[in-house]
Amino acid sequence: MKIFFVVIMIFFFSCEKQDDGFLYAPCEDDDCIIYETTPYPTPSPYGFPFMIIPDDNPLTIEGVSLGKKLFFDPILSSDNSISCATCHIQNNSFSDPGQFSIGITGESGFRNASSLVNLGWSSSFNWDGTAENLREQVFEPVVNPIEMANNWDQVEYDLNFNSEYRDLFKRAFNIDYIDSVHVAKAIAQFERTLVSANSRYDKWLRGEVMFTEEELDGYNIFNTERGDCFHCHSGKNFMDDSFHNNGLDETFTDFGLYNVTRNDGDKGLFKTPTLRNIEYSAPYMHDGRLSTIDEVIEHYNSGGIYSATIDPLMKYVNSNPYGIDGQSGLMLTQQEKNNLKAFLLTLSDNDFIQNNEFQP
Amino acid sequence: MNQSLLVFFCLFISFSCEREDNSEPIQGCMDETAINYDSDAEIDDGSCQFDDDLLRINIDFRQFIDNQDIQYNNLIYSNAAENLYSIEKLYYVISDLTLHYVNAESSIISNYLFLKNDDPNSLKLNNIIIPDTCSSISFTLGFSQINNATDMYLNDPNNFHNLMLWPDALGGGYHYMKLEGTFIDINEVEKFYNTHTGPLDGNDNSYSYSFNINYSQGQSQLYIDMDINKFFNNPVYDHNDYGQGIMGSSEAQTAIKNNLGDVFSVTSN
Q1: What is the pLDDT of residue A17?
Q2: What is the SS3 assignment for B188?
């Protein structure tokens, strides 16, 4: 009979092992409170494609609000010192103005924190494409030892210990135990609402403003082979959701996409970043090596540096065996470079960086 | 009695907690044209059974240079202009793919296909059910003008819009083809070429093909073959003349279009 009792006790606790000691009481059928959620309008700016929203994580008012609270809450970091918003700052189009972000230990990373804008139209995330969806992306920085340096068991414990979060998760997802998946779901919901579609460029597309001559010429440089920016920075979000080696280095210390695919042809390839809000999202490139838009334009105007995996779209590369120093590159005049910059500045969306809805 | 209860509980424990995590993906036939198609199946277990009375064909899209398989990223090819060249990327659009049958009927197999050298799945159409023996096949390289406008395929899968859009500044719509690689120029310098074709300034530079098929019942395979060198041979197209990027050059677009007549061939077995 004692053995029988022991077995029953083992059974009782074995299913709860994932709680790591935190006791909770899942409701039984008759006791359950089921909350209604309120649909959050799917962002659908003028001219944009349909936003990609997973069936199992529809946008709700409650989910978005919870995601925003989590985004700004340092509870996700192991010492409660940094939040997502520490490195993704709204004034900088939710990027980090520093070349590399500083984690809880004071150690810096090795890539520039990406701008978080119009992510609902992307199908790969991180500079090297390590995440295939937003939910997956959320998991990585929380446990990265040079970022938040936490572990999900601890995050779950801390959140479940917090009665406000228990209530908010219940209202958003009708769950009695907060788990990592629902943390990621909530943050992903909030991130999908970070929509920028009211720049001067958008207003021009809608016929609300006229471009200056300089902006119009810059638009043409961008969208023809005079500048050939459009092949990678394509579509409504000025990025092709793809990976390229854009001629930054002859050899690589950061292998980018190769780290994910282990395909030699992917060495030195990084995801094309959006150019929306480029004015606010300096520094530039995956490692933040370029400080100004002028430097970025000059990089492409020079043609870039040859390496074995350089993209054929970098067709005027300015180094052997593909180019002749000073005689390769785009060969834009100073006026053309100024005009291209003028166009890039039309992608600034002041409403986005001042939007109260994105603030805690 | 106690022992029986103990056994019962042990078994219960073994199965109760892990059922969700260990649930196996459902196996079954995933081919919608099979008579035992299982819409719940997550893994195709090879059990598909087909109605033997239905005719089926597969279509493969293949790419060659002078009848040889292409070795990508290899600077070994030569065109009529004697440009030594390589190929790194080949993306192209086939639209209005239509099969015509002996009974005079026809069916559109696909409005368009996005074919990519780095995606083998994009180069095959399998198990197409056909009502009668095929007599001919027709298709267009690129899009005809009526099917090519800005944002027309904005929401399409496979990232088609972002990868193939043709900017409004150049007329709008979508590329027909992106052929990229390197060539040795007149100064013996290796350079990149981007042979991108499309509707420059609204001109229809697409090309429609029709091939009779010597195809008898029992055969089930069609090959639609592209020979890259035919883009450059007649009239002779020299990369030195047209430059490394040709999207804005009406002369280059026209030169390529004038070469398109014999780029494709169709065979069956």
Answers
A1: 37
A2: coil
> Is-same-fold flag (A21-195; A197-360)?
yes
Q: What is the pLDDT of residue A24?
A: 58
**Best of B154, B189, B192, B244 to mutate (most A CBs within 10 Å, chain A):** B192
Answer yes or no: are the C-beta atoms of A258 and A129 closer than 8 Å: no
CB contact under 8 A, A15 and B2: no
Do A40 and A60 meet the contact criterion of CB atoms below 8 Å apart? yes
**Chain B interface mutation, best of A201, A234, A274, highest count of B Cβ atoms under 10 Å:** A234
B264 phi/psi in degrees, rounded to 5: -110, 150
Point out the least confidently predicted range of A226-235, B39-48, B58-67, B103-112.
Answer: B39-48
Section B121-149 average pLDDT? 94
| ipTM, 2 dp | 0.90
Instruction: Fold for A197-360, please state it.
Output: Cytochrome Bc1 Complex; Chain D, domain 2 (1.10.760)
Model pLDDT for residues B145-176, shown as the tens digit of each residue: 999 999 999 999 999 999 999 999 999 999 99
Is the pLDDT assigned to residue A304 strictly greater than 50? Answer: yes
CB-based contact A324 B9, cutoff 8 Å: no
How close is the nearest chain B Cα to the Cα of A327, in Å? 13
Chain A residues within 8 A of B12 when measuring between CB atoms = 11
Q: Looking at beta carbons, which residues of chain A come within 8 Å of B159?
A: 123, 240-242
Domain ranges of chain A: 21-195, 197-360
Of A10, A123, A240, the CB nearest to B13: A10
Where are the strands (E) in chain B, listed by range?
27-28, 43-44, 55-65, 68-69, 77-78, 84-85, 89-101, 106-116, 124-130, 134-141, 177-184, 190-197, 207-212, 221-227, 264-268
pLDDT at B217: 63
- Chain B residue with CA closest to A12: the answer is B13
The CATH label, of 3.30.1460.10, 1.10.1040.10, 1.10.760.10, 1.10.10.10, for the domain at A21-195 is: 1.10.760.10
Given an 8 Å threshold on Cβ–Cβ distance, is B244 in contact with A219?
no
